[in-house]
Amino acid sequence: MKYVHLLLLIVTSFVISFLLFRTGVILPWLFGSMAATFLYIRFVTRDFYFPKWLGNVGVFVIGFEIGTQFTPETVQEMAGHAVSIIVMTLCVIILSLILSVFFMKLTGCTVETAVLSSIPGALSQMILMAEENKRADILLVTITQMSRIVLVIILVPIIARFFQSDTVSVIDDSAPLLTESFITPMILIPVAAVVIMYILKRLKFPVPFMLGPIIAVIIWNLSTGYDFSMNIEFMFAAQILFGIRMGVQLSSLLNQLNGRMIISMLVQNILLIIGTLLLVGLFQIFMDVEFNDLFLSAAPGGIGQLIVVAVEIGADVAMISSYHIFRIFFIILIVTPLINYILKRRRQKQNET
């Protein structure tokens, strides 16, 4: 019977996600599967089987997608803006961490929750870290990160319209789909991903199920030059699996959400967007770059949503992509392990006292 419930939940998630997709809702496959899980638990049963490994499959595929964005061309684009990319990324992250102190005072949450809620453009990574950290409130982390995506979708295009360029930009979709470009040696990619994932897990590295495929695909792209893009259907399936996993975890925690938390999340995320806007104004004094391009490059949102906005308003898609891809990898490979280490050391000191 447990497998029947699992199958029904997956089908329900697909149906709701598809309806949201057709109506133009942001991140429909992720939000749709989460909504389906909440409804299933509320109206069907709380006692159903959803193995953790199935959710990890979704994380694994998302890791592949992130890795495919890192190509030799992307590296060249990053090199042209290396100094500004690094400085801007550091400034946005430092701003986020400063606001995390403010957020902690508003909500009364732990340091772990405040930090994981505040890092921008890293929804999946921060949620996974919240899962692994017992002192982190996964509900608050998830809702704060997701509310930022919604605010970015609403506010960033409005702000960017004031500085809209007359030029038209297009996304380079030259990388062929995985199913169209598959060659036998590519079997090495998932094999290497599993090996790297196992090593990272043994080293107690955060989010190994995501880092494994990311690193494996990067090695493939840079060593062979034979890059590819993930089929959108794979990403839909991955988001459904990850969304169900998140929905299961959050369903028992929603009753803990209160008005103070909601106001705190809105204030923090709006301040982060305003702070980024001010940073961009400061940076533009020293850079010969259009305000719009720099603002979308620095905006605290997901790369997918911001690239769509960039295309719509004719911004420099290549530049904006390079900034956000760097920030993704900087957060995953440097910020995430560093935060994980600092929080772990903090817990150890608290246990000793």
Automatic annotation (TrEMBL):
The keyword Protein transport appears for this protein: no
UniProt keyword terms in alphabetical order: Membrane, Transmembrane, Transmembrane helix
Superkingdom assignment: Bacteria
Annotated transmembrane regions: 6-32, 53-70, 82-103, 138-162, 182-200, 205-222, 234-254, 266-287, 325-343
InterPro entries, sorted: AbrB_dup (IPR017516), AbrB_fam (IPR007820)
Pfam families: AbrB (PF05145)
PANTHER family with a match to the protein in the record: REGULATOR ABRB-RELATED (PTHR38457:SF1)
Name of the protein in its database record: AbrB family transcriptional regulator
UniProt lineage: Bacteria, Bacillati, Bacillota, Bacilli, Bacillales
